[in-house]
Specification:
Pfam families: AhpC-TSA. This protein is 40% helix and 18% strand. The chain contains 6 helices and 8 strands, in the order ααββββαβαβαββα. The strands form 2 sheets. The chain has a 6-stranded mixed sheet, covered by helices on one side. The protein has a two-stranded antiparallel sheet with strand order 2-3. β7 and β8 form a beta hairpin.
Length: 208
């Protein structure tokens, strides 16, 4: 009998440990590590994305994202500026290798959709204006980027819905300012992002 109880304890011990670990994992899923970092002001590194694509049905989208910031050229931007059209938001920084790799593709799509129902906005999470401007000149990027390194306000604005917890991350906002799609990591297939943008534009009935 004693040996049976010992064996039971040996089996139950790992089970309880596994349940405890699972509880920790579940509790961790409820928090956004990027948002926590910025609330702490720690300015730590970022999680590498895997390029996964998430689409959100219209009925399942959360509230509109309310944001404001200042671009690398000193221009103020707010979420109200682009309401009524699709907005593509790309989180990046200059020394990020996948950010450099996707830059020309993003710029190409920006040019393709200019005055056709969608615009682009970058969010630079680490650089000051000179580095961001130099990046734009190197990769011929013409759309603006909000400089977010000092406050993290843009990341916090987006963290309540689908947090961009990897850099780069690209979000597609619908005409009401709600997140319609996300690419977590480098945009390796511009055609996929183009389809996401076109599908979101189509929701408004806008035609080219």
């Amino acid at each position: 009998m004693n040996r049976h109880r010992v064996n039971q304890r040996r089996r139950i011990g790992p089970l309880l440990a596994g349940l405890a670990a699972g509880a920790l994992l579940l509790s961790g899923c409820s928090a956004d590590p990027l948002a926590d970092q910025y609330r702490e002001g720690s300015n730590k590194g970022f999680i590498a994305g895997d390029g996964s694509v998430t689409e959100i049905a219209v009925a399942d989208r959360g509230d509109a994202i309310d944001f404001s910031g200042v671009t690398e050229t000193g221009e103020a931007v707010t979420s109200a500026d682009t309401l009524g059209e699709v907005l593509v938001v790309n989180f990046w920084y200059a020394s990020c290798a996948p950010c450099r790799a996707e830059a020309s593709d993003l710029q190409g799509l920006n040019a393709k959709f200019e005055n056709k129902g969608a615009s682009f906005l970058g969010v630079n999470v680490r650089d000051q204006a000179p580095n961001a401007i130099a990046f734009n000149e190197t990769y011929s990027v013409t759309y603006p980027s909000v400089l977010d390194v000092d406050t993290g306000a843009m990341q916090l604005a987006f963290s309540g819905s689908i947090p961009p917890n990897a850099v780069p991350t690209t979000l597609v906002l619908d005409a009401e300012g709600r997140i319609a799609a996300r690419i977590l990591g480098q945009v390796t297939s511009p055609s996929i992002l183009e389809t996401l943008i076109r599908d979101t534009i189509a929701e408004t009935g806008t035609t080219e």
